[in-house]
Amino acid sequence: MARDFEILREERLHGGFFTLLRMHLRHTLHGGGWSEVLTRELYHRSRCVAVVPYDPMADRVVLIEQFRVGPLKSGENPWLLEIVAGAVEPGEHPDEVAHRETMEEAGSRIRELIPVSEFFTTPGGCSESIALYCGIVDSAGLGGIHGLAEEHEDILVSVVDFAEAMVLLGEGRIRSAIPIIGLQWLALNRERIRTRYGAA
């Protein structure tokens, strides 16, 4: 089956923390032919990176907590438990961003970077994609408040046992999709990682 699309017109509605576009497009249909002209708004942002910082020797996970505007309109708590994440700037490789953001947000160096997956977060209306990694770290001494003042970051770092991270996940206290995906991956691969580092 031939799959194709046409962008007929694109308007820039806003440029700020995100770029908001209005797109007029059409695409081929599964049953043949073309769709009607569709109008869709799209939040556009650069590719991003997320890291699950994990210490296999201590069997601990590094979590961060920060204010997020997204939950406000739903009346939810805007301080979310998350993992390290950041945007890929022009000319950067995602691996570089993983190392940079882990230092900036958690105060930790990555000893080894394990690629996990790359996925779209909200493809129905946002272009954001995430390159997800597991970062092997030494969790000793980590904690406190981190982040860049020029980016108005106020990030609380906590080191928790893997079992506690799973309790937080199971109780629904981690509400953001990216750390949920990252921690579920870790749950599936933890024993392999610990065996590799001689911790199991």
From TrEMBL:
<dbReference type="GO" id="GO:0046872">
    <property type="term" value="F:metal ion binding"/>
</dbReference>
<dbReference type="InterPro" id="IPR004385">
    <property type="entry name" value="NDP_pyrophosphatase"/>
</dbReference>
<protein>
    <recommendedName>
        <fullName>ADP-ribose pyrophosphatase</fullName>
        <ecNumber>3.6.1.13</ecNumber>
    </recommendedName>
</protein>
<feature type="binding site">
    <location>
        <position position="101"/>
    </location>
    <ligand>
        <name>Mg(2+)</name>
    </ligand>
</feature>
<dbReference type="GO" id="GO:0047631">
    <property type="term" value="F:ADP-ribose diphosphatase activity"/>
</dbReference>
<keyword id="KW-0479">Metal-binding</keyword>
<keyword id="KW-0460">Magnesium</keyword>
<dbReference type="GO" id="GO:0019144">
    <property type="term" value="F:ADP-sugar diphosphatase activity"/>
</dbReference>
<feature type="binding site">
    <location>
        <position position="85"/>
    </location>
    <ligand>
        <name>Mg(2+)</name>
    </ligand>
</feature>
<dbReference type="GO" id="GO:0006753">
    <property type="term" value="P:nucleoside phosphate metabolic process"/>
</dbReference>
<comment type="similarity">
    <text>Belongs to the Nudix hydrolase family. NudF subfamily.</text>
</comment>
<dbReference type="GO" id="GO:0019693">
    <property type="term" value="P:ribose phosphate metabolic process"/>
</dbReference>
<dbReference type="InterPro" id="IPR020084">
    <property type="entry name" value="NUDIX_hydrolase_CS"/>
</dbReference>
<dbReference type="Pfam" id="PF00293">
    <property type="entry name" value="NUDIX"/>
</dbReference>
<dbReference type="GO" id="GO:0005829">
    <property type="term" value="C:cytosol"/>
</dbReference>
<dbReference type="InterPro" id="IPR015797">
    <property type="entry name" value="NUDIX_hydrolase-like_dom_sf"/>
</dbReference>
<comment type="function">
    <text>Acts on ADP-mannose and ADP-glucose as well as ADP-ribose. Prevents glycogen biosynthesis. The reaction catalyzed by this enzyme is a limiting step of the gluconeogenic process.</text>
</comment>
<dbReference type="InterPro" id="IPR000086">
    <property type="entry name" value="NUDIX_hydrolase_dom"/>
</dbReference>
<keyword id="KW-0378">Hydrolase</keyword>
<feature type="binding site">
    <location>
        <position position="153"/>
    </location>
    <ligand>
        <name>Mg(2+)</name>
    </ligand>
</feature>
<feature type="domain" description="Nudix hydrolase">
    <location>
        <begin position="44"/>
        <end position="182"/>
    </location>
</feature>
<feature type="binding site">
    <location>
        <position position="105"/>
    </location>
    <ligand>
        <name>Mg(2+)</name>
    </ligand>
</feature>
